[in-house]
TrEMBL record:
Protein name, UniProt field: Gluconate kinase
Protein origin, superkingdom: Bacteria
Family note: Belongs to the FGGY kinase family.
Species, as recorded: Lapidilactobacillus dextrinicus DSM 20335
Residues annotated as domain Carbohydrate kinase FGGY C-terminal: 256-451
Amino acid sequence: MAYIIGVDLGTTSTKSVLFDEHGAPKAYANIPYPLYQDAPDMAEEDPEEIFTAVINGLTEVMRKGKVKPGELKGVSFSAAMHSVILMDENDQPLTRVITWADNRAAKYAQELKASGVGAEIFKHTGVPTHPMSPLVKLIWLQNEHPDLLKQAKHIIGIKDYILYRLFGRYVQDYSLANATGLFNIFTMDWDEQALKVAGITRQQLPELVDTEYQITGLDSAYAEVTGIAVDTPFIIGASDGTLSNLGVNALDPGVLAVTIGTSGAVRTVVDKPVVDPNGRLFTYYLAKDRWVVGGPVNNGGIVFRWVRDQLFAPEKITAEQLNVDSYELLTQIAANIPAGSDGLLFHPYLGGERAPIWNANARGSFFGLTRQHTRAHMVRAALEGIVYNLYLVMLMIEGITGKPKSIQATGGFARSELWRQMLADVFEQDVNIPQSFESSALGAAVLAMHSLNMIDDLAEVQKMVGVTNTHHPHEENFMVYRELLPIWIRLSRNLQGEYDSIANFQRNHPNPNNHSANQD
Ligand code: ADP
């Protein structure tokens, strides 16, 4: 049997999956590590902890899968986007991993936007101006930790760090380079204007390579520990978001990948780089002639969790006592309410919002409440509001890439039949739930198979990914959503003007019992 290992370097854990040549998972290791949040808005990881997780994960799946010599054809990586590590002249980290979730550069994102420079750079990098972006993080470092930036001989991301430790080379794939905001998607090289604004030189950045690039010559000490032969090709791979599109079989033009986990995203693949004229969607490289256009959404399942914890605390306790899933119980309660929640609308912006509105000051609201509305209406309206918000992202994508033809949907929300059907009804599209295990790791493995000529085309992923459920839009429901969506969207626009005032009020009158930082 021929095997490939796909490794996904995530925000709170590294997942290693041993796939056979048909994309079936044969062994799995999930190794968690802390996300350090010891200062306001900080979200860092320890590079050494991640490296250890990679070595242990590789070792574990090699052992569990009982892989014989010669059977492992390659190892490939997926990684979270937007990470930054500064390395000194002795190749030692000067910082921990500053992750996408780190918000300390917020002020500099605002300045970049206000000056218009952010929008200019966006036109050639495809990365919305936001504190998540390494470009903005470097401006923050330049202003607030100039001593560190001065000492930085190399500026890299988490995957580059792992590869440096395994192979002694600083290399970065186009996909993760693209996510730095320093990479010009039309010249496929570092962007001179972005480098200047970031205050760095191209000599500090890794060597750029394509996502199917192979590296060999694994450090013999790690080869011995993991059981992976020194000459096994490592395929550099790409970013987790783009690989997830591949891993859920959302590769054809017109197929949308919709995810509702803790956060959410809507993404589609196009064959050349296109940039959203309004700067609200990202454009990220996946592989030759495959680019992912989409929007990341903060307010996904985390909002449902808030509804459960704050509005249905007694039911949550009862569910726990009865040993039933509390989300399942709540969706049953919501299922008694008709589509459209009898005219109750909900804007889910509890944590500010990235796409579609890119406003850190956005706040949530119920609109249209009457005395007839119950808590059950509120839970249904919340689930609908999360989907309406994703629909707005879809409308923006549609403006660039044309009308979608179907949806591949993933994430914790897919456990609920009601919520899956709601997605089909609001979007008026067929929704498939792919049967895909660790989609970003599978995406990395498929990229490796292509690089190693084990498959002719990435589209062969469709043979590897089954479908667990399919939902068709129900007319009686989508007719209701057609009436409500324009109101929800208009309302969203009208509220924009007031978000700053209410967020400022909240900042000026902080609740002493609430220490949670605003995550936009
Ligand atoms: P993550 O994005 O952190 O990997 P998941 O994809 O598992 O997490 O998504 C978690 C979210 O999925 C929860 O916050 C909740 O909103 C939703 N969820 C979990 N179980 C159910 C369920 N049975 N029905 C509906 N939604 C659910």
